[in-house]
Specification:
globular; six-stranded antiparallel sheet; 10 strands; alpha+beta
């Protein structure tokens, strides 16, 4: 009896997003949903905001340059592989990712979209602005090594959009909707705003959970407590909108809101007495 009370209390205290997905036999309804996260949105901006090295050293987090730097850095460090965004069964190595970035770069005309860097003024030695990057001022040195090596991926075009691929599952035993995250998909956005967005690489959520746990989501209004990025995703502390539900594309924001409402109302109306 006492053990049952403890188990019930633990289940109640656990956020819905972190619960173990139900076994397939308990799936009453399941929809594969692709959602788009605008990283330039004010609510989502902390996902990519970087913190200063001094502040980062005091927090105990391994990654402090935002989610894109953490995901790319983990792949380069060999902690996991990426997946082809057009074929989720096909894995990609770091060399494949570098070649992919070079292909995108080679497919552009005019200015090099991989050359632009919003932190450029902090990267060069002030006494030799035309020379090589100053490693002491390079915020990505620890994660990516020298950015002049020719084997790097510029993060700026990847820090505008993130896509989430997940299963929305109605558990017939718990009578609730479970969010089962499957993939995080990085999207290349042309800084010149002339070329269409391109899917860059996918990461399995289960592969990157450890990296996300060591990546800081800074609370700029209160230094008493920060969260890690895994908490942000599993507690749903971000804003997104659906762009595809069960293989059917969404053509507008009003339609995205309508499709999301459909999923919620289906859950709400299913359990009537």
């Amino acid at each position: 009896m006492f053990l049952g009370i403890l188990m019930g209390a633990a289940t109640f205290a656990q956020p819905a997003g972190t619960r173990i997905p139900p076994r397939k036999d308990d799936h009453f309804q399941r929809n594969r949903v692709v959602s788009r996260v605008d990283l330039e949105n004010k609510l989502n901006r902390p996902l990519i905001d970087a913190t200063t090295p001094d502040l980062y050293a005091a927090t105990g987090f391994e990654h402090n340059q935002g989610i894109i730097a953490a995901l790319i850095g983990g792949m380069k460090a060999g902690k996991y592989v990426g997946y082809d965004p057009t074929d989720l069964e096909k894995s990609l190595t770091w060399e494949d990712l570098v070649a992919r970035s070079q292909d995108i770069n080679g497919g552009t005309s005019g200015e090099d979209p991989w050359e632009s860097d919003p932190m450029e003024e902090n990267l060069y030695d002030p006494e030799d602005p035309e020379g090589d990057l100053n490693p002491e001022n390079d915020p990505f040195t620890d994660t990516f090594g020298s950015v002049t090596s020719g084997e790097e991926v510029d993060l700026a075009p990847l820090e505008s959009v993130l896509e989430i691929i997940e299963d929305r599952i109605l558990d017939k035993n718990r009578s609730e909707q479970i969010y089962d995250l499957q993939y995080l998909r990085l999207v290349w956005v042309d800084p010149g705003e002339t070329l269409p967005d391109q899917h860059f690489v996918c990461f399995k959520y289960e592969d990157v959970m450890e990296v996300l746990e060591n990546a800081r989501w800074a609370n700029k209004f209160n230094d008493a407590e920060d969260k890690n990025l895994r908490e942000i995703f599993e507690l749903r502390l971000f804003e997104s909108y659906a762009i595809n539900v069960s293989g059917r594309g969404v053509r507008s924001l009003p339609e995205a809101a309508f499709r999301e409402q459909q999923l919620l109302e289906f859950e709400h109306n299913l359990w009537s007495y």
